[in-house]
Amino acid sequence: MTAAAGWVLTALGSAIPVFAIAALLFVGAAASASLQLRRPVWRAGD
Amino acid sequence: MSGPPRRFYLVAVGAGFAFASMAIAVPLHVVAAHAQASVAGDVLALGTIAVAVGALAAGRLGSGALGVALAVAAGGSATLVAATSVVPLAVGAVVVGAGIGMFWVASQLILARRAGEPDGAKAYLLHYAAYTFGAVAGSTVTSALALAGAVFAAVVWRGCARYVVSTLSQPAGETRSRQLAVQVPDLLLVSALALLLPLVLACEFGLAPFSIGIVMGSVALAKIVGPFVARAITRTRAGAHDPDPPRRERGVLRAALLRAYAVALRDGAARNRARGTGAWPLVVDAAQARVEPAERRTLTVRWNAREYVLMPQ
User: Fold this and answer.
1) Which regions in chain B score pLDDT beneath 50?
2) How far is B230 from chain A (nearest CA, A)?
């Protein structure tokens, strides 16, 4: 394995878990936003 | 109900200019004072905490909250200009941070008046883009011009108190848990963006100065473009033609959030972090639109305080 390949694998190994957790948080944000948007918008007289 | 005047967005440019200039000026002052590099991080951390404290304090201010916020930011910038050692530098950063915390609460109270209306989200997007534009400009100058930015914002805003939301009595049924519930999407989004920050920093510190400039410039530009990308999604996405308004709104926001992550995988963390913030104004507007106006003051105060405690910068 070349030094460059090792560097790339190390970088991916440290970055992928972070991206994966960030993905879960983004999906959670989208899901919770969807749930929130099911609530009606406040209107005068409500 | 008419929207805020154009000068409201000019004020956001000035505030962004002042805050970003402070963030740049602090490390420069530290270097000039021959202090340790970690001191700059400590001072900036104090400034961030001050933003949260300023947001809490703004909840107690009356109709002149935005004017007070700008005056405080200008005072902090003046302290930074005069600072020759670390202590006054920290004081200046804290005062600027407090002013910016007040600025966000006061600005969002003005925007919250029209939350949920057809152009409500557009106003949030424009305001955020204006603030970021000011921050891009402020990143290139020193604290002397930060003072100019804060003073500019204060002068522009003078006499516009009629747009400030007056203090409203709180509804009897208001609870912290309900306000926390409507902020859950925001807290998850900010957490995701904060999580990616170490990757951004690693990327920056691993590059040559010229490359760092390019990366930071791209981040700044993406922050401006992000809100407009999110807005474009609302117009062009197929779901935008859904006849059911609530379903259309859900689809649009979901698309904006997921697109932020898709861009992350394609372009790397730095750009994603910036573009992801394009979804942020839409999240704020959606939350404010779902609480009654009397509740929006405390929601805005707590919203900003929680956000800046969570955000590492």
Assistant:
1) 161-172, 198, 201-202, 204-215, 236-240, 263-276, 313
2) 14
Helix (H, G, I), strand (E, B) or coil at B248: helix
In what helix (H) or strand (E) does residue B283 lie, and over which residues does it extend?
A: helix B280-288
Q: Summarize pLDDT for B208-240 with one digit per residue, the tens.
A: 444 444 445 555 555 556 556 655 555 544 444
- Chain B residues close to A7, C-beta within 8 Å: none
The rounded distance, in Å, linking the Cα atoms of B219 and B278 is 12
* Dist CA B192 CA B158 (whole Å): 38
Q: What are phi and psi of B113, to 5 degrees?
A: -60, -30
Model ipTM? 0.73
Q: Is the pTM of this model over 0.95?
A: no
In the chain, the amino acid numbered B73 is: A
Provide the residue count of chain B.
313
Sort out which chain B residues have CB atoms less than 8 A from A25's CB and list them.
188-189, 191-192, 195
C-alpha–C-alpha distance, residues B185 and B198, integer Å? 22
8 Å CB contact between B36 and B59:
no
**Token representation of residue B136:** 């891009």
CA-based nearest residue in chain B for residue A44: B292
Inter-residue contact B292 to B244 (CB < 8 Å): no
Q: Least CB-CB distance to A18: which of B199, B258, B291?
A: B199
Write out the two tokens for B305: 């305080």
Cβ atoms A19, B268 nearer than 8 A: no
